[in-house]
Amino acid sequence: MRALVINCTLKPSPQPSNTEALAATVIAALKGHGAEVDVVRAVDLNLKPGVATDMGDGDDWPGVHEKLLAAQILVVASPTWLGRPSSVAQRVLERMDAMLGETDDEGRPVAYNRVAGVLVTGNEDGAHHVISEISGGLADIGYTIPGQAWTYWHLGPGPGPDFLDDERGHDWSVSTGRAMASNLVHAARALAAMPLPAPPS
């Protein structure tokens, strides 16, 4: 089983990413269940604006698209900015919109029988809003969102330290991330054993 984690931090490599640090705990849990995990740091790529799978010369999205189709599990990881998903996360969802028009050999949307979850960091509240926005988009595209397929970390309203700067709340976030990983893996296995059929015509 393969999993893909798309880190939607605004910080290009090699800058430290709080979102990457929390995602690492979920990646470890996924690997503990036997999943092979690929990681994409979207900000490092040239992801052109648009809603097509390939926006032409220099567009790096086709490579990400290939990884999406190779993975049974997707985790979209985003920081919170202004109470919303990062602009990079929005770009990723917009590019994934093209998958709505793609089907497999049995006429199913290509996101069918794949599961997805969301991971959020930020030093202000708004995590549940970000989770709902990203989860809603992924469900529209065709992903199955299991119960409690998310984790997050924040220290409440107002400015404050980041995930990498403060140990408070880590135990809860990591424990919730382990539950997230377990639910994603077991839901993916259930769909592999009994796949969703193509939508009725």
From TrEMBL:
Q: Which residues form the NADPH-dependent FMN reductase-like domain?
A: 1-130
Q: Which Pfam families match?
A: FMN_red
Q: Which InterPro entries match?
A: Flavoprotein-like_sf, FMN_Rdtase-like_dom
Q: Which SUPFAM superfamilies match?
A: Flavoproteins
Name this polypeptide is given: Flavodoxin family protein
